[in-house]
C-alpha cells in the first residue's frame, strides 16, 4: 500500500530511519532492510528488524514500493558550459575550440555563478549527487562555482585549470600558476561538499614540468589531477607530430600518470596505452553520450574493466540524466564491440550500475566517502519510485535500473543527509524564478560570444529542407 502521508517535511528530520522496499547495497538490491541517516551520514544499514530494535527512539518512515539507492556520480562535467549545451548538436569534434572557449571567455562572475547553478540543478534532477567539474576557462575565482554548487546542494569536485603554454607565459607567470594551485588545494581541503582538484585541459596545453607538478600536488593532497586525453583524432595526431608520442604516452613521459590521474574520454587508445593506464593505476571517465554526440570513438570500457583499469561514468556536460547515462554506457559498448564479438551481455547490468556509483567515487578518490550505502559514508542517496509500469513485473532489478528506469521515478534527492529535491524541484529556493533569470541572460551572452558553428541555425535548416522538398516535387524555386 502506498504511503500517502509521505511529504517533504517528513524527510527533513535530522535523523531518519527509512524502511524502503529495497536498499541498493554494494552486493545488489536487498529487501527487508532499513537505513538510518544521522548527522549527514549513514549511521546504520542492515536487516530491518535489527536496525529498528537498535533505534527505538526513531519512528520508522515506511517507503513501500520505493528503492533507496546511492546518488550517481558524474565523473566528468563542465559546469560553466550549461548555457551552450544545445549549441553542440550536430557539430564535428573539437567543439571546444569553436563553442566552449569563446562562450566561457564571455562569462563574468555572475554568469559563471548562474551557469554553474543551472548545471548543478540539472545534475540533481538527473540523480547525480556528485559532479566532477573539469575547470572553467572563464576568468575569476573558482569560489564562484563552489558557491553555486553549494547553494544548489550538489557535491562538487572543483577543478582549477593550470595550463601554462600560452604565448605570454614566462617563468614568474608559471610560478604564479603553481602558487594558485597550492592555494586552491588548501582552501577546500576538508570541505563538506567541495573537493579540490587540479587540471590541465589537454596534455598539449601544459609543459612537461606543469603536468608533473600538478599531478604531484594532487597526489600529495589526496586530490584528482584531471585532463582530457585521446578524445579526438586531431588531438592525437597533433601530439604525434609535435611530441612523437600519443597523449597518454606523453602524460606518462612527463610523470603525470598515477592513481591521482583522471583521464577524460580515452576513446582512441592503443593496447600499450591501456597497459600504461592499468600499470600506473590511473582512472578514466567513460563518457558514452559525448562519444555519440561529438566524439570520434567509444572508449573500450569492457576491455578496461577486464584489465582492471579504474573508471567511472561521466556526462561531459551533455545530458545530466543518470539513468539514461548508464543505458548509454551499456548500449555504446554493445554497438561498438559486443555485436561484432557476439557478446550478448556486455558487462551485464551490475557493471554499469557499479561504475556509475562506486566506480565514479573511486575515480574521484572519494570512495571512502561516497558511492555506496554503508555506515560511515556520506548520506548521498535517491528515493526511487518502483511502482510504475516500466518496472513491472520485476525479475532483475539491477538490469531494470540500467535499461528501464528513468528520471521521472526519482522522488527525492539527498546530499549529506539533507533533502535537496522533492519530485524534481528544490524545497528551499525558487528554481522556476531562477530559470527565468537564466533565460534572460543566456540569450544575451550567447549572442555576443564569438561562437562558430559549422552547421546553420534551425531556421536555415528548415529553409534548406523546404527547398529540397520543393525541388523534388518539381516546384519552381524562387531566385535568391
Keywords:
TIM Barrel; nine-stranded mixed β-sheet; single chain; disordered C terminus; 16 helices; globular; 480 residues; alpha/beta; eight-stranded parallel β-sheet
What report would you give on this structure?
With 480 residues, this protein is of the alpha/beta class. The protein has a domain at 72-363: TIM Barrel. The protein is 40% helix and 21% strand. The chain is built from 16 helices and 17 strands. The strands form 2 sheets. Strands 1, 2, 3, 4, 5, 14, 15, 16 and 17 form a 9-stranded mixed beta sheet that branches. An 8-stranded parallel beta sheet has the order 6-7-8-9-10-11-12-13. β15 and β16 form a beta hairpin. α3 packs across α15. The chain is globular, with a radius of gyration of 23 Å. The N and C termini lie far apart (67 Å).
- The assigned structural class equals alpha/beta
CATH class of the domain at 72-363: Alpha Beta
What is the H level of CATH, i.e. the homologous superfamily of the domain at 72-363?
Metal-dependent hydrolases
CATH topology of the domain at 72-363: TIM Barrel
Mean pLDDT: 93
Helical stretch tally: 16
Strand content: 15-25%
The level of helicity is: 40-55%
Distance between the termini: 67 Å
CATH architecture of the domain at 72-363: Alpha-Beta Barrel
Low-confidence stretches: 475-480
Shape: globular
Q: Give me the count of strands.
A: 17
